[in-house]
Amino acid sequence: MSRPDTPAAYWSQTLRLSAGLLGLWLLVTLVVCLLGPSLRFNFFGWPFGFWATAQGALLVFCAIVWVYALAMDRLDAAHGRPAGD
């Protein structure tokens, strides 16, 4: 059994976080590409499919990057790794 501060535990948690966020990225990308054009109601004067593609997906992608950076900072601190910057 591995202790929580071993490199294997750190790598496992890093991979789990990365896989989860990449899955969310894939889901958002596919949903926007496949379902976006079928959403034909106006949202702030623009077709909602256009708004979701141009603005909504970009906001979700920025949030994914922010969550990854925050989670990795916390994971690094929990495992006693120094900050890289």
Observed structural traits:
single chain; 85 residues; mainly alpha; 2 helices; elongated; transmembrane helix; Na_symporter_ssu
Describe it.
This protein is mostly helical. It has a domain at 29-80. The chain has helices at 7-35, 48-78, and strands at residues 42-43, 46-47. A two-stranded antiparallel ribbon has the order 1-2. A hairpin with a 2-residue loop joins β1 (42-43) and β2. α1 (7-35) runs antiparallel to α2. The two termini are 33 Å apart. 1% of the residues are buried. The mean pLDDT is 85. The chain crosses the membrane at residues 50-71. Residues 9-80 form the Sodium symporter small subunit domain. InterPro entries: Na_symporter_ssu (IPR019886).
Give a brief description:
This protein has 85 residues and is mostly helical. It has helices at residues 7-35, 48-78; strands spanning 42-43, 46-47.
